[in-house]
Amino acid sequence: MTGPTAHPPTPEARPAPTAPAAPLAALARATGPGALLTDPADRARLATDRSGHRPDGLPLAVVRAGTVDDVVATLRWATAHRVPVVPRGAGTGLAGGATAGAGTVVLDLGGLDRVLAIRPEDGLAEVEPGVLTAELDRAARALGLRYAPDPASAESATIGGNIATNAGGLHCVKYGVTRDAVLGLDVVLADGSRLRTGRRTVKGVAGYDLTSLLTGSEGTLAVVVGATLRLHPLPPRTGTAAAYFASPEAAAAACAAVLDAGLRPSVLEFLDAATLAAIDRAGGAVAAGGQSFVLAQTDGFAAEAEIEAVAAVLRRTATRVEATAEPATAERLLATRRAALPAIERLGRVLIEDIAVPRSRLAEAARGLTALADRTGVPVFTFAHAGDGNIHPIVLAGGQDPAAVRETVDGIFRLALGLAGTITGEHGVGVLKRPWLEAELSAEGVALQRRLKAALDPLGILNPGKAV
Amino acid sequence: MTGPTAHPPTPEARPAPTAPAAPLAALARATGPGALLTDPADRARLATDRSGHRPDGLPLAVVRAGTVDDVVATLRWATAHRVPVVPRGAGTGLAGGATAGAGTVVLDLGGLDRVLAIRPEDGLAEVEPGVLTAELDRAARALGLRYAPDPASAESATIGGNIATNAGGLHCVKYGVTRDAVLGLDVVLADGSRLRTGRRTVKGVAGYDLTSLLTGSEGTLAVVVGATLRLHPLPPRTGTAAAYFASPEAAAAACAAVLDAGLRPSVLEFLDAATLAAIDRAGGAVAAGGQSFVLAQTDGFAAEAEIEAVAAVLRRTATRVEATAEPATAERLLATRRAALPAIERLGRVLIEDIAVPRSRLAEAARGLTALADRTGVPVFTFAHAGDGNIHPIVLAGGQDPAAVRETVDGIFRLALGLAGTITGEHGVGVLKRPWLEAELSAEGVALQRRLKAALDPLGILNPGKAV
Questions:
Q1: What is the structure's pLDDT at A234?
Q2: Domain end: B402, B418, B434, which one?
Q3: How many domains does chain B have?
């Protein structure tokens, strides 16, 4: 799978302050042996993320933190010398949240990668931020548990990055987003001081909810060095159903009907006609005449009965439905959903967008995206976490006129806001979506966000120019 | 049901700043006709909440807001004249969060009581803050939906108060707390400016999560004048099971086993031996020899099958289990849980405490509370939302030595913190729990909370001396 590429140029974030002759020697002494990298190749490699966005210039250096002490030392040094720090997980972000330009120091947390404890008796895990999402899930599965949030990048993304962006995934429709899984955080503040937030209990209302505030703050308020995460019992069984519909309206209405019936699918996904055509062209197995595709899964104690109930709802309006509790058949049904992004990426460079709309506007959004692509001439493929109204329009940028691509991306965000939605459902704002942030939050909303930023990071050390 | 009474005296919060000759005439002109109450009887009546705590002196006045403009005008006036404002819902709080002393103005939001819209197509409601929790639920039920958070005070508490305390209830084990139901807020800031937070979509990561920060902030960061709330489909069926166990350890282990089996009960409650004895004494129907009681409910598409699965787990270790999907029988089983607080309150004035511990420490907490009562001689009755580890120790204060009651209350909080728990699971900190807050959050944690408070309310207008 080739990576997506940068958004078209957007109004640039204000440049990060530059460090006048930052004493890197002091940083090298303060951190562990070999932690400080100054080789231009390392600095270039760790200056961008999966967005492909490259700020002007290279960062001053990279600290590969091997211990929490390295994080503390880096932030103390950064505060003393007023050097901006860009925290970084695995760099799988799509919004440019981990991009680092001239005058900054990259703080790579990928080396803090231990699962410290899994406590089945309390349904929780304690981890360092560099643990890969899928690795935590595997460690939990060995004990009959599961880590529910499952971003598409789970095999390569870190928990710290997931927390920074409040990552989502397919299971959110039943289990919630990363924020719903984070019970507590161990963080280092901009001045190098440490703080624990949250708790190991499910409920708790002592003090403001710093845990929720920090989750999704894209490294701009604090650096996460540990997390207490909620685990769920590993479901013994799953059920899977796939359905084709004649229109996006019919598909969206069927998804809503499933949820309105009180059924709680663990996956509820939508693919549009353009995406199905791309899969078809790539040799994938798509039912002839399918215009819109819905994939549903159920889990839990009555997964088989529940998928039958889901399928019964889908059958009311679908042109074709297949449901199974048998793993091999389920794999075949899942293949269509899995084939979507690779099939589109075969066509050229893509931009993976990430809007969300109220559930009832899903079909309108899908129609709007098709109309937008027709208008600008830039192909747009739509797939969605339908149960959450979270849509990933994939813009085929490769070989297209850059101005038309820009118009298409802008049109996507305007469409989301026009449907009472948001410019980002689960990927974050980073640098790439800041130009549209005020349109969503209002000028007053952005101003208040900046007051919170100033309260936690008065010198603007942490990931300046991102998120707010 | 008689109300609980105040905690024993605790180290007092710093006194609120007093207003030198606050020009109430200007406030009367700025608010709607009849909105300003200055009669001492009104001021006394609205100066406390269900905690019974009374600060020194009476508030200067009460504004009964009839419109959002009244709220804006009150906060502008308060900012201009540096007068602290105590926002207030129905005054059902148990931690003294809505108590108002000399020099303050009470801002009563109970009159903003409209359900503005229920949107079944998006599974959400838009409400004003004075709507009673149970009324919203009834309005939702008429459309086949439900508002899940169900604090014991649902019939008399307001949504605004629920948001201020991040209220819980019996359904949290499956549906989450109030914070999980709040998608967006319409608030007035301390200076009288308005702001919308959040969104109408299920997912969204544009900007910091102000909605979560404000939920549970006990009126110290902003005044909620509107909320967008998530609704769930009304389950067509429920199942109910009641079980008796020989020990709290057996009961707690059975509750954990239910959750570990991947079952998702919508209610999972625990009563201890002292509570069962009180119900027995009050003439309630308690099974002979029952030492610990567990009540479970299921809902959703397979409620009958799921309650049978729950009962099967409970039967492994219970002395007696009864399960039903039949409403009349369910009512009988529920009666024991419902009888608990009234039976205890017959014995005298009570303090309703609210700690939470990791799920695995529930039995230890129950044993610890029994030992504490034995040590201090003050009766303590324990019931718990077992699925969340959220425990309500009920302290019988009436007729007891005040010093022993104080020692008991202190012992409850120390016990919670010693078991890696929290001093408040769902009631809030208010004024009464502030003395124990630093022991839970650390001095650094409290300092950071105060920085956030200062960022949003630099003059300290909003509910000073509460929560942080």
A1: 95
A2: B418
A3: 2
Q: Are residues A380 and A260 in the same domain?
A: yes
* Gap from A85 CA to chain B (nearest CA, Å): 19
Q: What is the CATH number of the domain that holds A211?
A: 3.30.465.10
Structure tokens at A378: 């830039």
> Span A330-341, mean pLDDT?
92
Q: Is the pLDDT of residue A290 over 80?
A: no
Residues B248 and B204 in one domain: no
Both tokens assigned to B387: 């699925």
Q: Find residues 386-445 of chain B whose CB sits inside 8 Å of chain A.
A: 387-390, 420-429, 433, 437, 440-442, 444-445
Which member of B390, B426, B441 has the closest CB to residue A207? B441
Has residue A219 been placed in a domain? yes
Is the confidence at residue B194, as pLDDT, over 90?
A: yes
Q: How distant is the alpha carbon of residue B361 from its chain centre? A: 22
Q: How confident is the model at residue B9 (pLDDT cuts 50, 70, 90)?
A: very low
Report yes or no on B409 lying in a domain: yes
d(CA B10, CA A445): 38
Q: What is the pLDDT of residues B250-301, one digit of tens each?
A: 999 999 999 999 999 999 999 999 999 999 999 876 665 679 999 999 998 8
| pLDDT classification of A289: cutoffs 50, 70, 90 | low
- The more confidently predicted of residues B336 and A311 is A311
Contact A110, A64 (CB under 8 A): yes
pLDDT band, very low/low/confident/very high, at A285 (cuts 50, 70, 90): low
Do residues B353 and B430 touch, judged by C-beta distance below 8 A? no
B266 contact partners, CB below 8 Å, separation of at least 6: B170, B171, B173, B174, B175, B235, B238, B297, B298, B299, B300
Q: Please report which confidence band the pLDDT of residue B16 belongs to, taking 50, 70 and 90 as the band edges.
A: very low
Q: What is the per-residue pLDDT for A207?
A: 95
B238–A contact, CB cutoff 8 A: no
Whether residue A295 sits in one domain with residue A214: no
Residue A130 lies in a domain: yes
User: In terms of residue numbers, what domain contains B369?
Assistant: 238-418
Is any Cβ of chain A less than 8 angstroms from the Cβ of B283? no
Please name every residue paired with B125 in a beta bridge, in sequence order, or none if there are none.
Answer: B118, B229
Residue A18: HSE in the Cβ half-sphere, 13 Å Cα cutoff? 10
Helix or strand holding residue B218 (H, E): none
Q: Token digits for A5?
A: 């590429």
Amino acid identity, residue A291?
Q
pLDDT digits (tens, 9 = 90+) for B61-92: 999 999 999 999 999 999 999 999 999 999 99
Do A363 and A270 fall into the same domain? yes
Residues A314 and A373 reside in one and the same domain: yes
> Do B338 and B277 lie in a common domain?
yes
Residue at a domain's end among B233, B267, B299: B233
Is residue B147 domain-shared with residue B164, that is, in the same domain? yes
Read off the pLDDT of each residue in B303-328 and give the average, rounded to a whole number: 97
Which residues make Cβ contacts (< 8 Å) with residue B326, sequence separation at least 6?
Answer: none
Distance, CA of A429 to CA of A431 (rounded, Å): 6
* B185 and B131 in a common domain: yes
- The CATH number of whichever domain residue A390 belongs to comes to 3.40.462.40
Between A233, A260, A426, which is nearest B262 by CB?
A: A233
Nearest CA in chain A to B262: A233
Q: A404 burial class (0-12, 13-18, 19+ CB within 10 angstroms)?
A: middle
CA distances for B443 relative to A205, A225, B20, B95, B437, angstroms? 17, 20, 33, 21, 9
Task: Please list, in sequence order, all residues whose beta carbon lies within 8 angstroms of the beta carbon of residue B311, skipping any fewer than 6 positions away.
Answer: B241, B243, B296, B321, B323
